[in-house]
Amino acid sequence: xxxxxxxxxxxxxxxxxxxxxxxxxxxxxxxxxxxxxxxxxxxxxxxxxxxxxxxxxxxxxxxxxxxxxxxxxxxxxxxxxxxxxxxxxxxxxxxxxxxxxxxxxxxxxxx
Length: 111
Hints:
By secondary structure, this protein is mainly alpha-helical. The protein has helices at 3-34, 41-61, 70-74, 90-110.
């Protein structure tokens, strides 16, 4: 695998971590610190799921908006259609990234 692709993936992963951290601080930690006496576990879990879904949405649409993710832009990489060498269509980029949702299912099936 090309090292540029690995570095681009690391940049995208760091962006997801930053999104996760900011959203967690704003919508989970800050409200919990303000209402420490009134902690509702279902409310905490709901907020955490929403935060996680926001990160997953970034992973899915990162190559659709602007045709390349931030990491790919930094390293001047493109997503191409292997059969004809042209730039991949929106549908192909979407299908390529939708597999991030299937990752946990793969782990469960493997176990």
